[in-house]
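Need residues for this backbone.
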């Protein structure tokens, strides 16, 4: 995620910071590519912020695995 941090921060600067206790949830397929990306709380998923973050994460790669993995990150206001 580190390589994508600056672009995620830019999303927050462009579209507004996420509310407190927001999470980015990614289901990573066995090939290391995101299968599903969502934000929690779910009401955030239709916002410009979520669309921007999902666009950034869609190009991310993770280590390959034998099963799908659920990965989550807390979203914090950029400082």
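Answer:
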């Amino acid at each position: 995620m580190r390589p994508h941090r600056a672009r995620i921060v830019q999303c927050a600067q462009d579209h507004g910071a996420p509310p407190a206790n927001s999470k980015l949830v990614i289901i990573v397929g066995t090939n290391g590519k995101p299968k599903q990306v969502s934000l929690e709380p779910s009401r955030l998923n239709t916002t410009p912020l979520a669309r921007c973050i999902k666009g950034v994460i869609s190009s991310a790669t993770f280590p390959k695995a034998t099963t799908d993995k659920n990965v989550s990150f807390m979203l914090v206001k950029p400082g």
